[in-house]
């Protein structure tokens, strides 16, 4: 088993926002974490990565490759981030540093974890930009985030997360602000890269139609609790929980209207 989350509880200012969440992501598996806004999806991801906001506390168990990582020191968890576990955030424009070139940001985890320097580091940044299908990678690495389109910025974010070949990728609503064409490209890119590297994927979304394109198994959250879990075809054909039924209706309505599932056209 790659990632095991058992009884994860998160409190913020005395309010319980995640309550006893349990799920597993097997080695090489793709699991979706789905729910409406405020269900605790992103907080769960942040707890796994040791990135909870100030004032938040987590209890329970998060085991990575058999090792307990919940409660590790900042230094210890930082050693895992980027190297063994990568994360792609929902909004790359805010996740990227506006005053650093994208090449430097793509190469940062390589510099830290693999101690690569100089021309070799720049060559690695170009190679990683090419790996996520950014056109003109040599030119892209010299640009700043504001000079790129939304789709290009998301590809940069993916390149940053995967530069050190982590064994697990957490993708938190990575296609929300993208139009239909770019969203399909990003989903295809994630599928290809995780398959090529035999990487585990935890995909977070509020959209069941998007989830069906990337995950084989899903965990449904509502108000911080798991209300349903199972294989994605089963959730699509016979959802049991009311929230899952609502998500299915939303996804069906979106598809009927011809809108972009999970994004804004």
From TrEMBL:
Keywords: ATP-binding, Cell membrane, Membrane, Nucleotide-binding, Transport. Gene3D superfamilies: P-loop containing nucleotide triphosphate hydrolases. It is found in: Cell membrane. One of its GO terms (cellular component) is plasma membrane. InterPro entries: AAA+_ATPase, ABC_Ni/Peptide_Import, ABC_transporter-like_ATP-bd, ABC_transporter-like_CS, P-loop_NTPase. GO terms for molecular function: ATP binding; ATP hydrolysis activity. CDD domains: ABC_NikE_OppD_transporters. SUPFAM superfamilies: P-loop containing nucleoside triphosphate hydrolases. Pfam families: ABC_tran. Coiled coil: none annotated. It is a peripheral membrane protein. Residues 3-248 form the ABC transporter domain. Belongs to the ABC transporter superfamily. This is ABC transporter ATP-binding protein. It comes from Microbacterium schleiferi. The lineage of its organism: Bacteria, Bacillati, Actinomycetota, Actinomycetes, Micrococcales.
């Amino acid at each position: 088993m790659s990632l095991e989350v058992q009884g994860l509880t998160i409190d913020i200012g005395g309010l319980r926002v995640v309550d006893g969440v349990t799920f597993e992501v097997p080695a090489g598996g793709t699991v979706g974490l789905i729910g409406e806004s405020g269900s605790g999806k992103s907080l769960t991801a942040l707890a796994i990565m040791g990135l909870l906001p100030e004032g938040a506390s987590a209890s329970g168990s998060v085991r990575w490759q058999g090792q307990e990582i919940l409660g590790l020191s900042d230094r210890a968890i930082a050693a895992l981030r980027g190297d063994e576990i990568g994360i792609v955030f929902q909004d790359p424009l805010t996740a990227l540093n506006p005053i650093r070139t994208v090449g430097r940001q793509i190469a940062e985890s390589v510099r830290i974890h693999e101690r690569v320097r100089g021309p070799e580091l720049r060559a690695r940044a170009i190679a990683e930009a090419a790996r996520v299908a950014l056109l003109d990678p040599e030119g892209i690495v010299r640009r700043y985030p504001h000079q790129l389109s939304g789709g290009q910025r998301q590809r940069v974010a993916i390149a940053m997360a995967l530069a050190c070949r982590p064994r697990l990728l957490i993708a938190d609503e990575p296609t929300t602000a993208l139009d239909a064409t770019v969203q399909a490209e990003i989903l295809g890119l994630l599928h290809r890269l995780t398959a090529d590297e035999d990487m585990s994927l935890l995909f977070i979304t509020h959209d069941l139609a998007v989830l069906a394109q990337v995950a084989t198994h899903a965990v449904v959250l509502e108000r911080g609790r798991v209300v349903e879990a199972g294989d994605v075809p089963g959730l699509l054909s016979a959802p049991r929980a009311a929230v899952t039924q609502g998500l299915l209706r939303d996804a069906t309505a979106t598809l009927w209207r011809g809108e972009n599932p999970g994004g804004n056209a």
